[in-house]
């Protein structure tokens, strides 16, 4: 074997999963990247008064920092994922993390609303690329039998950020200042970059000859049903999550919003752990069970609104069924798209962000017209639609087994 062949063999070995054990160091690095991503996206919502005072703007304008981030993700996830699909994976991941380091640092030090708005948009761009590649990255580290479990570990950062990171960041921001929180997130990104340079394996991008257009990926059997389920499921989730305070006011728990969100967050972490244990054997079943569980939770929120204990049970069930949703849907999209998983994931990210915006809009319309009592029944309708789509799409997007 000559020197060139030996080098090629070593590269191939470094890019091929060789054991049946999870590469915990690399998967937890992806989980931490997701944690930073979600925390960067959501933390301004808990610190709007402080940010408004710091930038000398109104709270409504400060709220646009959240909108700018979402727009950055929504507008660029698909085109940039497609454009970078042939890049090597580790350099692209490091570039995304450098984006969080840079743009969170700009946010921490900026005294200009315009500059901060641009930084937030660009952080959203980093987020779109990260979510577009993370599922495929995690799956390539392990053999087929562990792909779902690997994704579950890689997705742990999202529910932990929502359950613990956002409350802790908000608490810290109130006492130490919102700029300090963004500085901490920049420090975390820098440390994670160093960790990734040490522990993350590298993989080649997709060869240009194998790339398919966005339209062709969309027409792959199974991709569209998964995206339809994402829209319906996440619309239902975001209607309730965005307007949880008005609902709790109706049921007499408005003073317990923090406790309710803690119950939801802890249940979400439990949900993703459960999904991680079962997804490689029961992908289709877990999708159907999760959707059915959320439908039951929605109905309980409607019929049990006068009983706080029933509300707490429904919130916990909602959290358990939502915790593994990202892993289930990303796995289903990756299974359906095959070699074109990264492009399919970027479409999923776009659909997810459309559902976030749509949930806020539809929830506002329902609140102004039918009132908050309409929320549980709207959620039930949307989730039942998602359940029917997933049930019918058993041959491709939501298969009972791999193959």
Write structural notes for this entry:
The protein is mostly helical. It is globular. It has two domains: 24-199, Growth Hormone, Chain: A (Up-down Bundle); 214-393, MFS general substrate transporter like domains (Growth Hormone, Chain: A). α8 runs antiparallel to α9 (178-199). The chain contains 17 helices and no strands.
Q: What sequence of helices (H) and strands (E) makes up the elements? A: HHHHHHHHHHHHHHHHH
User: What is the correct CATH architecture of the largest domain?
Assistant: Up-down Bundle
Mean pLDDT: 85
What portion of residues is helical?
over 70%
- Compute the number of structural domains: 2
Explain the layout of strands and helices.
Elements: H1 3-14, H2 24-46, H3 48-55, H4 59-83, H5 89-109, H6 113-140, H7 147-154, H8 157-176, H9 178-199, H10 214-218, H11 223-242, H12 244-250, H13 257-303, H14 308-323, H15 325-337, H16 341-369, H17 375-392
Helix pairs in contact: 2-4, 2-6, 2-7, 2-8, 2-9, 3-4, 4-6, 4-16, 5-6, 5-9, 6-7, 6-16, 7-13, 7-15, 8-9, 8-13, 11-15, 11-16, 11-17, 13-14, 13-15, 13-17, 15-16
């Amino acid at each position: 074997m000559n020197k060139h062949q030996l080098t090629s063999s070593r590269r191939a070995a470094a890019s091929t999963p060789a054991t049946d054990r999870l590469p915990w160091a690399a998967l937890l690095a992806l989980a931490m990247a997701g944690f930073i991503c979600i925390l960067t996206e959501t933390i301004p919502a808990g610190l709007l008064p402080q940010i408004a005072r710091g930038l000398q703007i109104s709270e409504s304008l400060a709220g646009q920092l959240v909108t700018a981030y979402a727009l950055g993700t929504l507008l660029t996830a698909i085109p940039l994922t497609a454009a970078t699909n042939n890049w090597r994976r580790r350099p692209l991941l490091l570039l995304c993390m450098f984006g969080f380091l840079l743009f969170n640092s700009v946010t921490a030090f900026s005294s200009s609303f315009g500059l901060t708005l641009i930084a937030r948009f660009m952080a959203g761009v980093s987020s779109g690329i990260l979510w577009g590649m993370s599922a495929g990255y995690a799956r390539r580290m392990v053999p087929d039998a562990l792909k779902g479990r690997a994704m579950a570990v890689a997705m742990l950062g999202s529910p932990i950020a929502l359950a613990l990171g956002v409350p802790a960041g908000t608490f810290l921001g109130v006492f130490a200042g919102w700029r300090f929180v963004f500085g901490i997130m920049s420090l975390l990104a820098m440390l994670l970059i160093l960790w990734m340079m040490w522990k993350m394996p590298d993989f080649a991008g997709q060869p240009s000859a194998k790339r398919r257009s966005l339209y062709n990926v969309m027409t792959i059997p199974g991709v569209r049903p998964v995206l339809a389920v994402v829209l319906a499921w996440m619309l239902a989730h975001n209607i309730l999550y965005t307007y949880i305070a008005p609902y709790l006011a109706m049921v007499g728990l408005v003073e317990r919003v923090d406790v309710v969100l803690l119950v939801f967050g802890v249940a979400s972490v439990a949900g993703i752990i459960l999904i991680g244990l079962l997804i490689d054997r029961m992908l289709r079943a877990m999708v159907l069970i999760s959707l059915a569980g959320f439908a039951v939770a929605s109905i309980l929120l409607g019929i049990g609104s006068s009983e706080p204990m029933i509300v707490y049970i429904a919130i916990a069930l909602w959290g358990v069924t939502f915790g593994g949703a990202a892993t289930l849907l990303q796995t289903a999209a990756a299974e359906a798209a095959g070699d074109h998983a990264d492009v399919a994931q970027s479409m999923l990210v776009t659909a997810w962000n459309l559902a976030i915006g749509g949930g806020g809009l539809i929830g506002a319309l329902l609140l102004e017209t039918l009132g908050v009592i309409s929320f549980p029944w709207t959620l039930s309708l949307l989730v039942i639609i998602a359940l029917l789509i997933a049930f019918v799409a058993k041959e491709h997007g939501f298969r009972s087994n791999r193959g």
